[in-house]
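Figure-free illustration: sequence to structure, shown twice.
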Amino acid sequence: MPGDSLAAGTQPSARRGPSAPTTDHRESRPSPAPGTTTGTASTPGSDESGAFAAAASMLPVRSVLQTATPTSTPGPVDPVGRVVEIVGLVPTRYWIALAVILAGVGLYVVVRRATERVLERLGVGSFIEGTAFERTAREFGTSTVALVAALLGYFAFGLAVITALTVARVNFADPFWSAVATYLPRLFVAVVVVIVGIVVGDKVEVVVAERLQGVKLPQVGIVPRIVKYSVIYIASLVALAQLQVATLALIVLLGAYLLAIIVFGGLAASALLSSSAAGTYLLLNQPYAIGDEIRVGDVQGIVCEMDLFVTHVESDEEEYIIPNRRMLREGVVKIRG
């Protein structure tokens, strides 16, 4: 019956009663279809109260998250640990290369001092004393021994730098440093040869000049210089050969130089030999003696000295050095007073 069906249709709603409020307001209910009614009536302020309840339900979660996350405060920075961390970032081979360079600095000091002591004990300083190279070095506040010692020290330091670059594996400069490693010893030997050649040439010039000091001939004064520059020229050839420079033209020039020395030396020797032959004759026959007043050409004076090559004649204010070959060629007039 219609009344029974209506009572039966309303009976489930009476059995359930009012619906209990849900605790999870974050879940949204599906909206009812148009023309249907729900078991609970909606009020105008129900949406606002639901949003407020959802926000309130989220507050404990946020507070728990905030209390669970500790706040980090910056502590004091450990400088030692920071330095260790920075050192750890650099590869080990770079530190080894730096140690090799520092060892090279110490090696430079040791080699320089040891070289100076060795050369001084060998008497090199006293041997080259008075040479032109030594005088020039003294003008710059140093000496030949100090220059050679410094050169050896720089060579040792250069080897240390090349070793350090090899340890550090500097790949971008491999061709350059390999060429330097090959060229540096040759350059060092070449510089040492040139220095030794200059020093020896200066010393030979001094020795030859002292030996020929008693020979009173104008041509003798050029002999020490010829010997000096000959030694320097030969040393330069050896140095250029160490640097792998083409020295064929220089060797040909050296041959021409030696030929010129032989020719001019022969001419000078001829004059020297003629003077010595004349001196031998005068010393054996003694047409005049020391203290005699003589006249040779336009020169007149008293004989004060005689040797194998020349005769010294003094006038009132002048002294004449006359080669003995001239004495025989022009004749000697002995003045009797």
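We now fold a second protein in the same way, so the two outputs can be compared directly.
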Amino acid sequence: MKKNEKNQYTIFKDLDISFTEWSDIMIFLKTNSIIQTVNETSYIKLLENIHITINKLGGFPSFDKYLISIFSKISKRQNKNIYNPMTPEEDNIQKYQWKIATIITSDIELYSFTIPVPGSNQNSYYYVRKLK
């Protein structure tokens, strides 16, 4: 480890770790959480910055577990906001134009297939949709 002219170790300078980065790590070590930010994007950026800094120090398994937990929660929250109806009945906000088609139906270039129509013979008919 290097020392400066005052015989002090310079590990943070050598590893390019700022006072703010070290403070964020210390908050995590003391509270097992990080400070909240204005929005989710800045929160994720802060998590990434802390992770990079912690990796410079060799990594902390407790922070890895924390990251997995946080990203799992974020992923679940984002998945709840996905609107993906598979049938006309599920299209509560009537976002799509629906048809029933077969794989050889013409004039469905702008449509996407969803699921087979229940009761159709050998899955020969499918719901297809396109944005209105």
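Summary for the second example: The longest strand covers residues 96-101.
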